[in-house]
# Entry
Amino acid sequence: MSDSILTQNYFEIFSLAISTEVDIKQLQQTNRELQQQYHPDKFASASDVDKRRAMQITSLLNQAFNTLKEPVLRLQYMLSLKGVDMNAETDTSMDGAFLMEQMELREAIADVRQKTDPLAVLDDMSRQLKKRLASLVEEFKQYYQQDELEKSREVVRKCQFINKAQKEVSEITEQLEDELI
Amino acid sequence: MALLQISEPGQSTKPHEHKFAVGIDLGTTNSLVASVRSGKADTLPDHAGQHILPSVVQYMADKIIVGHEAKQHQVDDTENTISSVKRLMGRGVEDLKTLGDQLPYLFAETDSTVPRINTAAGEKSAIEVSADILKVLKLRGEQTLGDKLEGAVITVPAYFDDAQRQATKDAATLAGLNVLRLINEPTAAAVAYGLDSGAEGVVAVYDLGGGTFDISIMQLKQGVFEVLSTGGDSALGGDDFDHAIAEWIIQQAGLDANQLTQSVLRQVLREACSAKESLSDVASTTISIDFSSDNQWQGELDRDTLNELIDPLIKKTLLSCRRALRDAEIEKDQVMDVVMVGGSTRALRVRELVGEFFEAQPKIDIDPDKVVAIGAAIQANALVGNDKDGNLLLMDVLPLSLGLETMGGLAEKIIGRNTPIPVTRAQDFTTYKDGQTAMAIHIVQGERELVDDCRSLARFELRGFPPHVAGAARIRVTFQVDADGLLSVSAREETSGIEASVEVKPSYGLSDSEIETMLKASLEFAGEDKDARSLREQQVEADRVLEAIDSALADDGEEMLSKDERAIIMTARSKLAESRHTANDTQTLKDAMKNLEKASAEYVARRMNASVQKTMAGHKVEEFNSDQD
# Structure
């Protein structure tokens, strides 16, 4: 079994160019092909060494697939390839207008239950957030190409905020739907 | 001893021979065994031609009865006749509070965290009862196939947590089965169905058994069965329909359930169950029950009333369906087919509501009782290498999030639900007090925020690392979930290299020594011929162990071990190699293997650690959430 896969970056593993845009269908297809090759089930009666390697490689494949599939994780990973860590404690203050916008959004989410058709409001919020994320990804792409890493990083932090809000929206949607049944 | 654990007892030494493997559906109500013969997968019948083995065990002082005969005694020997034991798998004593009222058994007072049922044959845990069911299926497999089994694939509900999976694996070990893989019931069903129809696309598998409900959303393409999401309820099934009907009967009869004897309650339940079954064919049915010699009750149950009783339960399952669709990011109209699995999907109302929900006609082509066992058999056949050209591959996911307890009793998720497995993930934690030299690690599973609302899987401690100021120590906790969905966890203080790890033998499972004792007890009853076979098995196992250690040493023995350490391992290795050829009893061989295992324990730990670190090298941003060095 080839180990070279263990030293490749996630994009290389799936034979993709490093980019904010990933063809999900192609990613899935390559993932299936690689899994066919490396999955532990294909080594059920192999030696111990091969079995563990299969497990190790498949774990990596799963991790890489997951990272490239999720837009924000993908951006974070692209930054890490340039040595930028999202979790370092050097975060400067956020853009004030963005924070304001986020606070208003959180309040709107908190108040959604008082609306006459909360599910429709939530659906609309979800759509807006998706749009907002798409435009942030565009912004990231520009900065990243120009090697403006600090600015790219700032954009990813915004994306993380959007993701969190999106998660809240879907959690409340879930709760409301549960109550309706 | 992960390195030395890979040996598969019973491995045939002739590699090109067709190997016999079975798939086992260990169900709450019924169990089945299936195998692929002449290229076709089917369930195996017993001598009387019956495929289904009721998951009921009657313990008598001098013998154990499993299946149809035991089922007959549920009413007259309630306390010793155990059914639906799957509900207790991986459950702790405190879980009985929520389950206990449905279980008419006498639980033993015990120090063990595992509940034990008092029977005429002594105290029995759920694992032992399950093992007794598995033994019958194993024997049936061996007798039908005419040879010993290479191994078995055993199915579990997708929604089973780590403790429940581990308990199932322990039961199989106790029954003397070599577990090739634990696979999820809906995945197995999809395999049986998908290979049969050759269809490609997104499929929803709705699996409602006697005691569990599972929903899986799956993508079928080019032989790959990729689970996109899974959900369900490990304590909801057709049994609950019976209970709802039984409650209605008792209410109609103007009685109080608390004042009825266990034997009468069983009788009511049995009548409820048969009423439910007959309402799949007729619009109305008569129920009559002798509550006592002077109190006979008779009543009419029609479909509308039945629907009123079971609708709330079915709606609960539909909630899970919606969540699973959302997790998979799939819209209803993208679902190509809805496959119905499990005996409880025979209920017309279930088909009706599920069809309404998915806006599709549910598929019932393959017998819903048999489909899971058949799928498991196909996977077992592929795993032992009988299907060399086949491209069957199952890509499954973790059903419930795994995490750690952090300050304030909060659960911090390390691996989210529906993450594809196998998976390895690490997260760094730090100390909160100056001079702290130990840290307790509490592993939990579940979706809730509070640790108390999640299932506790295991606790261990990392001790003896050097004191730092608060926040300076870096404790990296690594979770590894294998292809069976089973978890192992290790922790390491990075500045000192102090380590600790656990195979997650959950708080609710049996300890290794408990399993060993049970295994020994069951072996004592084995006859002479078994000795020869077990010696042969130990020899094969010894060969494997030797092969494993040789290949590991060749791989990295030089770099990972000092000369002296190597010498110690080599001495133990030579002793085993000698015993392999000279020993006439299994114990000598086992001791030699144990000896080698002990000698190489540290080596194994280093290799595991190295391989984990290697996996993580180079990608340490979002997934590890760590401060970079």
Notes: The helical segments of chain A are 10-13, 24-38, 48-69, 71-81, 96-111, 118-145, 149-180.
